[in-house]
Amino acid sequence: MKITRRKFLAATAAAPLLGGVGRLKGRRAYFVPNFHPASCGWLTNFSKERVYCANSYFDHLDRVSADPQYGFVLSEVNNLIAMMNFRPERRDELKRGIKSGQVELVNGFFLESTINLSGGEALVRLGVEGLRWQKAMFGVRPRFAWTIDVCGTHDQMAQISAGLGLEAMVYTRKNPTGSAVHWTVSPDGSRILTISPGHYSELGSLMTATEPLNATLTAEVEKHLESKVAVTPEGAPMLVLLGSGDYALAPARKEFPREFLEDWKKDPDHAHIRFSVMGKYLDEQGSLTEAEALDLLTQSARGLAAAHAAGLVHRDIKPENMLLDKKKTLRIVDFGLVMESSSTTQLTASGACLGTPMYMSPEQADGDKADACTDIYSLG
Known about the structure:
By secondary structure, the chain is α/β, with parallel strands linked by helices. The protein has 13 helices and 13 strands.
């Protein structure tokens, strides 16, 4: 299911944050098992680290086969290549996990683009090749820019990720906003929905526990979820990226998560927890109903009609430039590329080809004069 950014933003980033510790009853939490691969010779030589990463993922895949309530996310093409090289007989098993929704190839980029040293061209190539390879080999198109251990985000990451058609960027370091859900904006005004829940390896004690759920572990999980309330917009589910450090494995206790979830649900005041993949967390916001979609389309068309009546052509109509307020009133924003329909003079920008490629009309792509039809094409 493809998430509608407008719906997600209206339900999350535009909503006020809860202050302090709140009650967990009725709240929802997604636990997304993952591990931070470092298949670049970070902690040891490349060959040994490649083996560690592949076997870590195989451990998660074992749990998928054993427990239908378990799911995890898998990142980086080189890890997939290693898995197929080492255990080619498990490729079909991996495909089944992906098809069932228990495994998600989460990263659109070939590698985790987690530093700001790479140039824009290199990042684009990583994205193009990552999407191409995963589509060719597994028939899927990842939805995220998975940069969980980012230690410096390139200024163009929002522009590049949105241009690649990715739906959101996920990172965990140096979040300047105080909110787990926000927008990242590039210098050209391009934006992408951004999710920054905290750390990439949370609740390690749950993942390494060898005994059933007890009072100590329960209190730790409750405390961790309460800390999420302050950074999670009201109405949005909380997100926990589960792990126990680098090369994090599936839960050490073989009965988890099935047994853990059964025991956790016995307390009616507990938050609802679901072990899941990242895409399902995003999808919970729900797709638009037919009536909602028609209402938003009507509001968008009326907004454009008003702009066209004033002699203005927007030239960059896309979901990121349409925001909803709490009353579900749609606002068309970012008139940075606007021009007068009666003139070829560009009011705020210059260049032969302006706009966002995924939504650009043919005449825009050719560098020809834009008119009202240009905006209508982008809206449709």
